[in-house]
Design a protein that fits this description.
mainly beta
Length: 150
């Protein structure tokens, strides 16, 4: 689930797990907050941050915080990852994003993080934020998927 706030957004509609944004204005200083969650293998990851169009007309997506919770007495270490990548839905071109490193805490507390990247402004960008949770054996994964329409 992804939610956004900001006075210039006309709507945020969930369609098959993807949040669609309809922007009514393009002010470089008009930042919007976002947050979302996903779950896999007895873990839930939450993340949030900001998105805006900068003065150079780049769409900036920034992750400012995360929280990973274990359920059902799930064992695991504190080496989770958060990776963000982007796809220009008009051209189909994918872009590398930001990577947290293999060191995120899974303690159920909110932690600050600074992950940011930008994509040259297009009319429709898909953002994929992937949590890779840490446990012995194969690590469960889940995605926060959302799209930004400019």
């Amino acid at each position: 689930m992804i939610s956004f706030s900001g006075k210039a957004w006309a709507a945020c509609i969930a369609v098959t797990g993807i949040a669609l944004l309809c922007n009514t204005t393009q002010a470089a200083s008009d930042m919007r907050t976002w947050e979302g969650s996903c779950s896999a293998g007895n873990f839930t990851g939450l993340a949030g941050g900001l998105t805006w169009v900068d003065a150079a007309q780049n769409t900036v997506i920034q992750t400012n915080w995360y929280k990973i919770t274990r359920s059902n007495n799930q064992a695991g270490g504190n080496k989770a990852d958060l990776k963000t990548r982007f796809v220009d839905l008009n051209s189909g071109i994918g872009y590398a994003g930001a990577f947290s490193g293999d060191n995120l805490m899974q303690d159920g507390l909110r932690h600050d993080i600074s992950l940011a990247n930008f994509v040259r402004k297009t009319t429709h960008i898909k953002v994929i934020s992937e949590f890779v949770f840490d446990r012995s054996g194969s690590d469960p994964r889940c995605n926060l998927n959302y799209s930004i329409q400019n």
